[in-house]
């Protein structure tokens, strides 16, 4: 039951349980007005309105929260854009808002460990966003309950089937809603409820539509750049070059392995699913290396000792280990559009992409197809 794919989706749903997406529009001449209220498990005294500028959230305005939990923002804007509310003190969560000119929104938040909005008035986009979020909340609750029941259950096969069905139905629902409403700016954020590597076609279709409507929006441009960066990972495309140092400091290039079938394996010593998958990778390496198969391991570690210990502990005996030790700031992350690890790219003797995301049985089957079955 507990496959990487399902846990990845559960993590995405849990992620959305921590964030609120709103679409705000406001109302005097060129003013955008937010009439807000917050209630919850603490007393919040201040809220800031933030905007992403070159990857960093910058405060553009702030408002005191009165004893009733009320706050207010009014700002001038020319076109719809995405903003972020942060409640203080000491709440490391943000409420996502899409603000539009010449509209007013009334919005009420409830904070109990996570942020939820209880009431919103003033935007059709908000209704759409709330529908998606309500759905994800209900799916999250169901998946968590199934996950908790599974270890000690006698009917594990039934629980597994229900888990899988819930996962598949939810993913299909979100995809359908995003594609039906792909010109809503909210989709630029809601897309992240879908796995990037598995749903690249949906990302591309939605973001191309948004780019036509909002060509200057920073969030749309950022995500579209990511989509374009991994278009090179489609079957038959040449995998982007990787040239990074090995543990001894020597730069190793992916292209140096031309003439072999190569699995580019993105992993890290701190990644439990990666470490759990490593025995499968080692077994396949031992079987198929004599037939022209090799592995190019790219670590997203940020600690050299941990990286080296992981290699030794898991018996990763091949020579091709590289890392710039920058974790998620590594240059390979945007280059390969990595949104989670483990992540793999299988390339042919000419460096052309055969498939992405293969592991376990799916990798074994593909290697058998390419190199023949090995007993």
User: Over all CA atoms, what is the radius of gyration?
Assistant: 23 Å
Spatial gap, N to C terminus: 27 Å
How many beta strands in the DSSP annotation?
A: 16
Total count of helical runs of at least 4 residues: 10
Query: Rough shape?
Result: elongated
What are the key terms here?
alpha/beta; five-stranded mixed β-sheet
Can you walk me through this structure?
This protein has 375 residues and is α/β, with parallel strands linked by helices. Helix content is 37%, strand content 27%. A 5-stranded mixed beta sheet has the order 1-7-6-3-4. It has a 5-stranded mixed beta sheet with strand order 14-13-12-15-16, with helices on one face. The chain has a 4-stranded mixed beta sheet with strand order 5-2-8-9. Strand 8 (104-112) and strand 9 form a beta hairpin. Helix 1 crosses helix 2, helix 2 (124-149) packs antiparallel against helix 3 (156-180) and helix 7 (272-288) runs parallel beside helix 10 (360-371). The chain is elongated and about 70 Å long. Residues 1-7 and 17-28 have low confidence and may be disordered.
Protein topology:
Blueprint: H1 4-17, E1 20-25, E2 31-40, E3 46-53, E4 56-64, E5 70-76, E6 81-88, E7 95-100, E8 104-112, E9 114-121, H2 124-149, H3 156-180, H4 187-190, H5 200-213, H6 218-230, E10 243-245, E11 251-253, E12 261-267, H7 272-288, E13 293-299, H8 304-313, E14 321-322, H9 332-336, E15 343-347, E16 353-356, H10 360-371
Parallel strand pairs: 1-7, 2-8, 12-13, 13-14
Antiparallel strand pairs: 2-5, 3-4, 3-6, 6-7, 8-9, 10-11, 12-15, 15-16
């Amino acid at each position: 039951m507990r496959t990487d794919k399902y846990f990845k989706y559960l993590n995405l749903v849990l992620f959305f349980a921590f964030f609120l997406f709103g679409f705000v529009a406001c109302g005097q001449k060129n003013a955008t007005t937010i009439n807000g209220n917050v209630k919850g498990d603490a007393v919040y005294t201040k809220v800031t309105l933030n905007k992403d500028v070159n990857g960093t959230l910058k405060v553009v305005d702030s408002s005191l929260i009165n004893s009733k939990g009320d706050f207010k923002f009014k700002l001038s804007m020319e076109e719809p854009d995405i903003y972020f509310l942060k409640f203080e003190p000491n709440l490391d969560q943000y409420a996502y808002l899409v603000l539009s000119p010449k509209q007013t929104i009334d919005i009420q938040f409830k904070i109990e460990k996570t942020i939820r909005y209880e009431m919103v008035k003033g935007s059709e986009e908000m209704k759409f966003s709330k529908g998606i979020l309500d759905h994800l909340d209900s799916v999250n609750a169901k998946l968590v309950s199934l996950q908790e029941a599974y270890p000690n259950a006698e009917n594990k096969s039934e629980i597994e089937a229900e888990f899988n069905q819930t996962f598949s139905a939810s993913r299909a629902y979100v995809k359908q809603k995003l594609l039906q409403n792909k010109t809503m700016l909210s989709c630029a954020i809601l897309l992240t409820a879908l796995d990037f590597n598995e749903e690249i076609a949906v990302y591309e279709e939605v973001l191309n539509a948004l780019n036509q409507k909002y060509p200057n929006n920073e969030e749309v441009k950022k995500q579209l750049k990511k989509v374009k960066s991994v278009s090179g990972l489609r079957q038959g495309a040449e995998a982007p070059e990787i040239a990074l140092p090995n543990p001894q400091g020597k730069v190793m290039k992916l292209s140096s392995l031309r003439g072999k079938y190569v699995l580019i394996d993105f992993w890290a010593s701190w990644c439990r699913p990666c470490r759990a998958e490593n025995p499968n990778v080692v077994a396949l390496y031992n079987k198929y290396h004599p037939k022209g198969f090799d592995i190019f391991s790219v670590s997203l570690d940020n600690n050299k000792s941990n990286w080296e210990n992981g290699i030794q502990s898991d018996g990763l005996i091949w020579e091709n280990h590289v890392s710039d030790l920058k974790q998620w700031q590594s240059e390979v992350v945007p280059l390969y559009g990595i949104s989670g690890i483990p992540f793999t790219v299988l390339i042919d003797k000419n460096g052309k992409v055969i498939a992405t995301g293969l592991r376990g049985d799916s990798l074994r089957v593909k290697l058998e197809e390419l190199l023949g079955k090995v007993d």
